[in-house]
């Protein structure tokens, strides 16, 4: 134990470890992580880098619990575009926007329960989801299809359905990003977003889904690294007593676990530093410090532990506040341990089939598709196509390691299909020329993602459709732009299952046009 901790009580040190939710690298638990769990670390966060197969993940979580049965194993598994469970192949479930567009809360509940069942089967018991953000800003670079939609009431009812479904499977949800990340045009992974709206707007829009989630029993809530001057002009929500304690605890009456968003995100780390930011978050009312998306080593855990202990000793963090935070972590761990047994009782069987055309995820993805035919009736394609993917830079939450698009699904249905990817900076003329050359006399399928946010993409798509009016367009983001092409397919998300639904339409294997 370091000199700093030599005079600290064992309870204080243990509580400081209890409130941390770190990550690690690799697909097996490193010795340092097991050692820290033995010394009091009560939660571990999993990311795509930790997961290869369900069997490997199950063995990993079992090893963690062999060290201590009540350790929380958390994951950022939203389904749709943000998946860790299926990071290498794409999700079997559409994301929130697709579910919101269908607007069938029973379907959302079923999807969340099945996703929760899969997580629970692998030993995961805390999911940093769902996103309850109202996507009121169509140019939002980080929320988009992760939101159920732009309508507060729709977002609220589907947030409730998700909470109910996931927690019925024995997995605690962590509703995010409080008090709402939807009206931003900055990604908090890179900088501090600011939302300049009045209190009436916040209560009528941003807070509506969170009130509903709290009423539905959301076991955890995640704070957002955003500045809302109407609530606190000085500190972002994660570090604000006015927001975490005054608004969330006292005004909204929330008594569950408050988890921070990743403290290594630039909105916090570049201004306050991770150690000071973590102390300020706990003092403001947060109970658990999420860190490990970018920092995943024992040194980080020890620095944070030491910073928390020092803050208590120096009077910057009341010891009773830390004790309260640690108690809430342990209370959630107790709930998840009991919920594991309840979810495993008879009647909790999977709803997800194994055949290509089965499963609640594919059912939902098919229902989410919106089709806009061109001037002529669409005839299904029966021969190989060329897929031109106009690819934006993926935001950090989604990551660039998860495949997206329709090429793989079309290649499975139309052998001989090939694809090319095109990025900003290539130039419209060069993009069109290459697509026409590579496509030859084959049908062209142009795949885009949030074309309304990317002028280069819209320009290239318009030029391509002008050159080849028979082009099929697949929009896999928020479908706000004017439909184009001989057939415009809006999948409302870029998950693998969304690509499958689009491929079925192209080949006539789905519900038709």
Describe the main β-sheet briefly: 6 strands, parallel
Helix proportion range = 40-55%
Count of separate DSSP helical elements: 17
Query: What is the average of the pLDDT values?
Result: 91
Radius of gyration equals 23 Å
Strand content: 5-15%
Uncertain parts: 345-357
Terminus-to-terminus distance: 67 Å
Q: Which structural category fits the helices and strands?
A: alpha/beta
| Order of strands, widest sheet | 2-3-4-5-6-7
Tell the overall outline. Answer: globular
- How many strand segments? 14
Description:
By secondary structure, the protein is of the alpha/beta class. 41% of the residues lie in helices and 11% in strands. The protein has 17 helices and 14 strands. It has helices spanning 10-18, 31-39, 54-67, 96-102, 105-121, 152-168, 199-215, 241-251, 266-269, 274-284, 298-314, 319-343, 360-368, 407-413, 428-439, 455-467, 496-507; strands spanning 20-21, 43-46, 72-75, 126-127, 172-178, 220-223, 257-259, 289-290, 370-373, 385-390, 418-422, 443-448, 472-475, 487-490. The strands form three sheets. It has a six-stranded parallel β-sheet, with helices on both faces. A six-stranded mixed β-sheet has the order 9-14-13-12-10-11, sandwiched between helices. Strands 1-8 form a two-stranded parallel ribbon. Helix 1 (10-18) crosses helix 11, helix 4 packs across helix 13 (360-368) and helix 6 runs parallel beside helix 7. The longest helix has 25 residues, at 319-343.
